[in-house]
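Appendix B. Raw example, untouched.
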Amino acid sequence: MDGVDLTLDAGETLGLVGESGSGKSTLGNALLGLAEPTAGRILLHGDDITHAPPRKRRTLARHIQVVFQDPYGSLNPSRTVGDTLAEPLRFHFGATRKEAMRRAGEALERVGLPAAVTARYPRQFSGGQRQRIAIARALLLEPELVICDEPTSALDLSVQAQILNLLLTLQRQLGFAYLFVSHDIDVVRHLAHRVAVLLAGRLVEEGPVDQVTEAPSHPYTRALLAAVPTTRRRRAETTPPPAPPPARSATGCPFVTRCPSVLDRCATVRPPLRPTGVGGVAACHLHAPEPASRTAVTARTCSTTTCDT
């Protein structure tokens, strides 16, 4: 990660998109304490949790939970679903086994599964059902933030829609925030309030979801949208050209090797984040203001032409 600065409000969904290796999962792992940043800070209600010790991290688990990509690997195959869900309740709240199992059953019913399945093992469920169990586990501690790391990419398309609708319903009911990590900007379009686009560990565009997906400001964001499958014919100029991986240099733009609108300075000058539209920003030289000297010369030329005429 390199200079990424993001804010997530209560009850909000921030979509984090980008191709493989862009830094999406790394950012999520840093929030969970699974990766330690070498610089910068992570704040929760103003409290710096960047280098929180293990004991504090265990407490933070009540505030930050995660739903992983693989529903087959995120559940212990040797334990029943009930035991898996009851464990955090007994650890964090000191619940008795009976109370923990009761609450586990309620959590399963909330995600559309019968409470009776607490006695079954993960191998007895489909992929979509396992992901529902993983969601139930994440919500048991009533977190403020749920990190969803590609939660639908391993599922069939029909099941993906069901899981996305479930996530939206649960957020409306319980009021927590999502950090939704995905390589599919079309999925994020239907779930998020705001979108942040990462490339080679850098934030290249961020803003309200409608603004970013309907009128993207960065050429990389436009390339991601052009890559979304569609039944409509796209114009040739919107198709991203094949090119080598993004440049990971301290200078210049990481999209310089693929950008169809590249400028001379794109390879040597790092573009800062500039305002675009209402509440959006993009790191692109195409949005740089014209130099004052050039504007002045143009004004004088027009004035002279007008006088001669």
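End of appendix B.
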